[in-house]
Amino acid sequence: MPEGDTVFLAGKRMHDALAGKTLLRGELRHPRLATIDLAGLDVLGVRTYGKHMFTHFSDGNSLRSHFRMDGAWHLYRPGERWRRPAHQARAVFEVDDRQAIGFALHDMEFVPTVREDELISHLGPDLLADDFDAAEAVRRLTADPSRPIGIALLDQRVMAGVGNLYRAEVCFLLRVLPTAPVSSVDASRAVALSRKLLQANQWRPEQSTTGDLRVQHYVFERTGRPCLRCRTRVRSGEMDGRFVYFCPKCQSG
Fold first, then answer.
1. pTM, to two decimals
2. Domain named FPG-type: which ranges (predicted)?
3. What stretches in the chain show pLDDT beneath 70?
């Protein structure tokens, strides 16, 4: 699942490519939205919140798209070959000098722009927002002290933007197992680390939590490889239907 920084960067690139331009082609290839033709509308801008992206149009409506597990927006020059199969395209936007193709966007809604906040009102603070409310994120994180920290970090109602990669890395940096209860963790530090790691990668496609792009992660997807801190082999297991990664020596709880 794409992390919040991936969605943020995709939104910024979409905004730079489309904002202020008129759509020459605007197709939504979704059963509920297939009759909507956006050609002729101006793109006013693109914004993101957590893992949600909103594209604003001059008719007063917005398209919300969510990447889920395998969704993505790609930008192409006219005539450039798409890097994914055409049958996966769920949105096709074309302006004079660029194409924006939304692939595998299972979750799309077309709503009045004034109502788009209703779609994300249940979410916690956006970790990449300029006005991020850390105190509110801590309050939500600690609302259930017995909850496993690995479950709480992924809950977008706590704070929006953490995915499986950052869950693993935050737990490692906190030196706790993902199964450790929230009550055993410094909640303020967990929130601060989550924001720090996403901010470190929000302007680039590569995601490094170590500060070194040659060895990008401490434990994520490093099963059987030596821990960068103690050289114990990293282990993995399943939690809430997804893999979790941890060092059995460095992490406790």
1. 0.92
2. 218-252
3. 1, 253
